[in-house]
């Protein structure tokens, strides 16, 4: 039960629906004096942002033989809500769905975006990414990261980009969102243990980063950056973590 409640609390602070947030959550941002270099000093609960050894994002270089199954993604298409949470746009689904990994089954919690992308692959930088956050029954988190280059307009995200909530706390309803259509046909992925990329930088997060990027148009990227000019944490040391490639 302990880790279950821990998971809920983490989501309340860093990611998900606010059900048990502290009364005065410390303000953080992507620029000094409350930016990534200062996150660890802003509040006791953020200490891992400074002292953690398995932090995200990383520059991904596969270093361990992987024998990984295909991702089992079960996201039913349906209505969604897009919320401006002050740091990014956060998407929740009316019928959330789930995914299954060798470590278990994880319910979909929310998807949000970063510009530029946080994860790099072999030093390659991408202008945009989506993080799909999941949680298992014990409260453990697993995130899928999708990377995007600038190119063809992204049709799945078009209704979101064309009607974004523009102020913190605002929400916009979408009639239909099909998360699976955001995924590339070839679903090779890197996997490793890491952290939340926002305070409190909690570790024990299982990351799956899709190797093949999708696209969004220049206009879609610019529209997002009008609201969030830069919302990516810098690359963190990999240290001696195993990074596997599978699919
Ligand atoms: Zn994220």
Automatic annotation (TrEMBL):
- Give me the reactions it catalyses: hydrogencarbonate + H(+) = CO2 + H2O
Checking Pfam families in the record gives: Carb_anhydrase
The first-level EC class reads: lyase
Q: Domain Alpha-carbonic anhydrase: where?
A: 26-247
Q: What is its EC number?
A: 4.2.1.1
Gene3D superfamilies in the cross-refs: Alpha carbonic anhydrase
According to its UniProt record, which protein family does this protein belong to?
Belongs to the alpha-carbonic anhydrase family.
The entry's protein name is: carbonic anhydrase
Q: What is the lineage of its organism?
A: Bacteria, Pseudomonadati, Pseudomonadota, Gammaproteobacteria, Pseudomonadales
């Amino acid at each position: 039960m302990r880790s279950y409640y821990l998971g809920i609390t983490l989501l309340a602070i860093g990611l998900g629906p606010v059900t048990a947030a502290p009364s005065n959550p410390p303000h953080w941002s992507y620029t000094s004096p409350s930016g990534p270099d200062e996150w660890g000093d802003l509040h006791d609960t953020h200490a891992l942002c400074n002292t953690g050894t398995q932090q995200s994002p990383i520059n991904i270089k596969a270093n361990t033989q992987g024998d990984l199954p295909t991702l089992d993604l079960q996201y039913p298409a349906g209505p969604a809500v897009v919320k401006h949470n002050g740091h990014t746009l956060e998407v929740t689904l009316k019928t959330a769905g789930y995914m299954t990994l060798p470590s278990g089954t994880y319910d979909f919690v929310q998807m949000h975006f970063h510009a530029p992308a946080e994860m790099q692959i072999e030093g390659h930088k991408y202008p945009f990414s989506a993080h799909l956050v999941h949680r298992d029954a014990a409260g453990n988190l697993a995130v899928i990261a999708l990377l995007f280059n600038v190119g063809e307009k992204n049709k799945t995200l078009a209704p979101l980009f064309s009607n974004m909530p523009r102020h913190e706390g605002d929400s916009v309803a979408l009639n239909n969102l099909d998360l699976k259509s955001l995924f590339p046909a070839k679903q090779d992925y890197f996997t490793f243990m890491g952290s939340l990329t926002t305070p409190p930088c909690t570790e024990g997060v299982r990351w799956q980063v899709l190797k093949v990027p999708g696209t969004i148009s220049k206009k879609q990227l610019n529209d997002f950056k009008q609201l969030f000019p830069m919302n990516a944490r810098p690359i963190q040391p990999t240290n001696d973590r195993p990074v596997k490639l599978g699919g």
